[in-house]
Design a protein that fits this description.
ATP binding, DNA_helicase_UvrD/REP, binds magnesium ion, alpha/beta, 5 domains, globular, Rossmann fold, single chain, 6-stranded parallel β-sheet, Arc Repressor Mutant, subunit A, UvrD-like_ATP-bd, 719 residues, binds adenosine-5'-triphosphate
């Protein structure tokens, strides 16, 4: 590709940005205006015009996926070996640097990176070893304290305590530093801080990298935190030129310390002369853009900019209101299949949700209809850590001799059974050719850990006894309490999402009962392993994309479905009380809308199973903030159900109000079987006596049907 063809098609502002002389630059522009394209093209242009070699480039992106994407785009433009280029996330780049200079950084060659869960376990072990009262100094709080200080660039020795309590926290922070050093373990914040300190301290290395990296390019600059910004300044020195691109309207990590203010600091620190603005959007049709523009105008704190497109207005945004979350999921899958039949590849469509737990119902629907899908930036429901722990308890209840399950939970949540004790149980089991459970029953050693093992055995036995006579969902609920899993995640700072997932497991059990022949715990467990199996589409295969709005940042799709648009869900209930939180939710919605190229769907549901209970939600305020003329409601909104008049599945307080329900003893939400359409859920009814009709949602290809009551069989006992 010649340099002319490389630059072809860029608009004047983009062209100016791509070909800026070597100087500090800030590109401030809205979604889809070509920021990432400008950044990538600039790298290619710098290389092609010989202004820099691949080794001289350092590019920071926000996710590994984005980094890969950038490499692919550059390779497509230029026939060069991209290996020498450093393109990655802050964590990835710091890891690379520390691996190369582990000795100088004071780390063992094979240092281990801890995720936040590992970090917390280490803190707990430490508190225990030091005999610290964890009521007074909760592990989560200490973790927060440590990470917050590290992200502000402060070591224990540099933190100035202001009372006795913080004095103690600082001491514990110091002890934590020592422990990590002994174990050769590095947490996420440490990667950055350690790297920062290495370059501050070691002038030779610093000069080496300053000489090497002539051009430093940063995508999604609005989401950098303070230490990341300092790190960039340090490595840039006054030789390198920093080229930063960002969008204040897409700042969605303030809750993790990201500072939009870095953009102002950057402008000041580097005396950026002209901030380049890009306003033409190349991604989306006009209606989609208008929706995004109008929505974000409801935020007070903005730098202010507007997007326009020459693409025409396209179709209106389609809105679907389901009666239940199952109904919403059935609609999504039907629509995806329809678009696919019309020629859209699955990988060009994305289903977005605000919280991870929402994916389960959708995944289930996809799984049952055989639509290949892939979940990004997170695990699929049954693969999530907390779900695996919960399933392990259930597996042990169903079968004591399940060694894998036992190992997973014997000390989770921690109950004082150490690695040594577990090893001795394992060797006893080997010697007597017994299962770990049997070995544990015949004594887990002496002293405290022996007693803890006995307690664990009792716990499992007790849960099994309690299970008798309980329905499957009740068994799951009981296990979540008795095992301590619920309490454990309840005490975690970031545990809400995991708690939601655990509660979602109860819903999974309910749905399973509605559909399965084998209603036993074992049957449910088999179903869970099957759904966890290899149904995630193979890498490279065409598959529908599922992800949270956070992980969709920077990506684009022909068709986008934004789901769960209900107050409390999106905007999230944790955020909707405080104005700053609400503005961040609105920026998230702005990110979500602007992912769509051609078609945008907004879906919601009148009722939804959450935390094991049916919730009746009202539509999200974001639906009101989008001009009504841009929206096309697909199904005439049904009147919002009144409490009590609409009895959901599994809700024992079902109070049918209509005469047919009283007469025939069924209720809305009840599962039914139809000879031709299979299993469905009653969502409405009409008439009485022999003329009674029910409206049943069969999901999948059959959808919603009105049928005579006589033609269906009730599956669950009515209340
Ligand atoms: N001058 C152009 N001509 C045609 N297409 C363009 C042009 N500039 C950008 N695009 C296309 O527009 C889409 C959006 O570009 P890009 O992803 O770079 O935007 P962005 O500003 O980084 O968006 P986001 O804020 O969501 O990260 C891409 O498909 C890109 O290829
Ligand atoms: Mg981008």
């Amino acid at each position: 590709m010649t340099s002319r063809s490389l630059l072809e098609g860029l608009n004047p502002e983009q062209l100016a940005a791509v070909t800026l002389p070597k100087q500090a630059a800030l590109i401030l522009a809205g979604a889809g205006s070509g920021k990432t394209r400008v950044l990538t093209t600039r790298i290619a242009w710098l290389l092609q015009t010989g202004q820099v070699s691949p080794q001289g480039i350092l590019a920071v992106t926000f996710t590994n996926k984005a980094a890969k994407e950038m490499l692919t785009r550059i390779s497509a433009m230029l026939p060069i070996n991209t290996r020498g280029m450093w393109i990655g996330t802050f964590h990835g780049i710091c890891n690379r640097l520390l691996r190369a200079h582990h000795r100088e950084a004071g780390l063992p060659e094979a240092f281990q990176i801890m995720d936040s869960q590992d970090q917390l376990s280490l803190i707990k072990r430490l508190l225990k070893a030091l005999n610290i009262d964890d009521e007074k100094y909760p592990a989560k709080q200490l973790q927060h304290f440590i990470n917050g200080n590290k992200e502000a660039g402060l070591r224990a020795a540099q933190v100035v305590p202001y009372d006795d309590f913080t004095k103690r926290l600082v001491e514990l922070y110091a002890a934590y530093e020592e422990q990590c050093q002994r174990e050769g373990a590095v947490d996420f914040a440490e990667l950055l801080l350690r790297c920062f300190e290495l370059l501050t301290r070691n002038a030779m290395l610093r000069d080496h990298y300053r000489e090497r990296f002539q051009h430093i390019l940063v995508d999604e600059f609005q989401d950098t935190n303070k230490l990341q910004y300092l790190w960039l300044k340090l490595i840039a020195g006054d030789q390198a030129a920093i080229f930063a691109v960002g969008d204040d309207d897409q700042s969605i990590y303030a809750f993790r310390g990201a500072q939009v203010g870095n953009m102002f600091d950057f402008e000041r620190d580097y005396q950026v002369k002209n901030v380049i603005k890009l306003e033409q959007n190349y991604r989306s049709f006009g209606n989609i853009l208008d929706a995004a523009n109008t929505l974000i105008q409801h935020n007070g704190t903005r730098l202010g900019k507007n997007l326009w497109t020459s693409a025409g207005s396209g179709q209106p945004l389609r809105v679907y209101e389901g009666s239940t979350d199952l109904d919403e999921a059935a609609f999504l899958v039907e629509e995806v299949k329809q678009l696919h039949r019309e020629g859209l590849a699955l990988q060009n469509m994305a289903i977005l949700y605000r919280s991870n737990a929402q994916s389960r119902v959708i995944e289930h629907q996809l799984f049952s209809t055989g639509v290949p899908y892939r979940v990004y930036g997170g695990l699929r429901f049954f693969e999530r850590q907390e779900i695996k722990h919960a399933l392990a308890y259930l597996r042990l209840i169903a079968n004591n001799d399940d060694d894998g399950a036992l190992l997973r939970v014997i000390n989770f949540p921690t109950r004082g059974i150490g690695a040594r004790t577990i090893e001795s149980i394992q060797s006893n089991a080997r010697l007597s050719r017994a299962s770990l459970w049997q070995a544990a029953c015949s004594g887990g050693g002496s002293g405290r850990s022996g007693a803890a093992v006995a307690q664990f055995v009792n716990l499992i036995e007790d849960m099994r006894r309690r299970s008798e006579g309980l329905t499957l969902p009740e068994q799951v609920d009981m296990m979540l309490d008795q095992s301590g899993l619920r309490a454990f995640y309840h005490s975690e700072k970031d545990g809400q999402d995991r708690l939601d997932n655990l509660n979602e497991l109860i819903n999974a059990a309910m749905n399973y009962l509605a559909e399965a022949d084998d209603r036993s715990l074992t049957g449910f467990l088999a179903h869970a392993s099957l759904e966890a199996g290899d149904h995630q589409a193979d890498a490279g295969a065409d598959a529908l994309q599922l992800m949270t709005v956070h992980s969709a940042k920077g990506l684009e799709f022909d068709a986008v479905f934004i789901t769960g648009l209900e107050e409390g869900l999106f905007p999230h209930e944790n955020a909707s009380l405080d104005p700053a939180g609400l503005e961040e939710e609105r920026r998230l919605m702005y990110v979500a809308i602007t992912r769509a190229r051609q078609k945008l769907y907004l879906t919601l549901s009148q009722s939804r199973m959450l935390h094991g209970q049916t919730r009746y939600n009202v539509g999200s305020r974001f639906l009101i903030e989008i001009p009504a003329n841009l929206l096309h409601w697909l199904n005439k909104a049904q009147p919002a159900p009144k409490m009590g008049g609409f009895a959901p599945a599994g809700n024992s307080s079902a109070r049918p109000t209509r005469s047919a329900q009283a007469e025939h003893g069924f209720h809305i939400g009840q599962s039914v079987l139809h000879a031709k359409f299979g299993v469905g859920v009653i969502i409405d009814c009409e008439g009485s006596g022999g003329g009674a009709h029910v409206q049943v949602n069969f999901g999948g290809s059959h959808g919603i049907k009105w049928l005579t009551l006589r033609s269906v069989d009730m599956l669950t006992a009515s209340s």
